[in-house]
User: Fold this.
Amino acid sequence: MIALRQFSRILKYMLLLEFRVRDALTLLLSLSIMFAVIAGFGITSASLEPRVRERLFPALLWLCFMVNAAVALGRSFEYESEHKVLDGLLLAGVPPAVLFFAKATVNILVLCAGQVAGVTVLGMLLGASLVPHFGLFSAVSLLVIVGYSALATIVAALTAGARLRNVLLPLILLPLLFPLFFCAIELTTLILEQGILPLSSQWLSLLAGLTVVYVALGATLFEFAVGD
Amino acid sequence: MEQVPDTFPWMFLGYAVLWGLMVMYLLSLGARLRRVERDIELKGRPRDTP
Amino acid sequence: MESLSTAEKGTSASPPAPDRLARSLPQLEALAILLVAALIFYLLYLVFMAVPNERVMGAVQRIFYFHVGSAIACYCSIGAVLIGSLAYLGTRRRVFDCISEAGAEVGLLLSTMVMLSGMIWARPIWNTWFHWEPRLVSFLLLWMIFLALALLRRFGEPEKIPQHCAVLGVLGAITVPIVVFSIRLLPQIAQLHPQVIENRGLRDPLFVEAWAVGTIAMVCLQFLLVYMRTRIGMVQVRLMELR
Assistant:
């Protein structure tokens, strides 16, 4: 109960901070739109058939998401690192796992906003639509975003005090994300082409397993990432 | 009779790369060890044992 | 008459085991280096003097004997990273951080060797430097994980590098089997890499002998390099503490 109360208070503080500072959110939205425009222009210039463009859409969508989110989340611990906020909270007796879950939740919300922007703009420019499959795609997106956020939160904590941290985070994070990347692309392709998401799908099982593993790892290892 | 392709130059390149990398790493280890031994001598401490 | 303790008994008593080990360490190290060197020279003899030319690929197939051994040694390196990282997080003893650092560095070297030798082997056989097939992609990702560890070691927050690298080591090591498993599920990536061992393609006994010696030699070399690098790391740690 105490942990839950601490979690809700810290989450409220972090959400307020993110709303006021808006570093990660602004960066992610701008990058998503910019990448989508550049990708759309490149695809259009290549004069590809609509069928081919639809086949490329899942890969481009998730490529856009993975790279832009890694760059944007490099800012996620900027304020806390500068003002030693996490040190203060840890000294006050807040469990590191609570801090992890609060930060990861904020990152999930930021990433959801970025994903909405990316899907919308890229879909409009490439003529591919996920609206008919909104429910299925949202479920897959949410699983991917939760796993991504868990991993990105802990890696961002590792690089918060490092030199070249804005470049270091994507370089360190992206190799760890490839399994999530594969799952996201395969499931999105399945949804677009067949309009179904079978529960027996190996990719769905792998995605669910990865999400659980990354959340568990993040909660366990976070104290080593932020502590002394 | 089946003609065996002449891929000797590629084999030579492959081994050159493999051993080149290994030798460079061993040389860098040696350089690090010499630097560390020099630092120890400057400090005048006895040789370290693990 | 009071009985003397072991330390007071004089030179007639044998020294305790850790002291004996420390005194004979240089000889053991020299013996290990000689053994590994002998294995490597024997392997080179087998590869260039004994093993016949492979009838489809020709001479370039001889890269196989170092290539496969290095790949297996890479997995040993990531194992060293995982064990060192977990042990450091549990005990905070710097020797384990040195083991993890050594494992990552040697792993980066070996995975670079595997990637480059594989690409050089692939060029005349597949007519391409790289192909998006399961083993190559999983090794490319392994290389990137070792690179990530090296980058964090180089650019990380100075006071917290050991524990941060330990965290990343655990994450990276756990990612490796996940990557290997998930890549095999990808349907459009055709299996192009030779499945020599699985398909029992080594018919000639000399091929088998060279492959076995190559694997043992590279794994022993990996252990030796990790040991040497760990020793250097420990000395550097002691020097830093003295400053």
About this structure: The radius of gyration of chain A is 18 Å. Residues 2-226 of chain A form one domain.
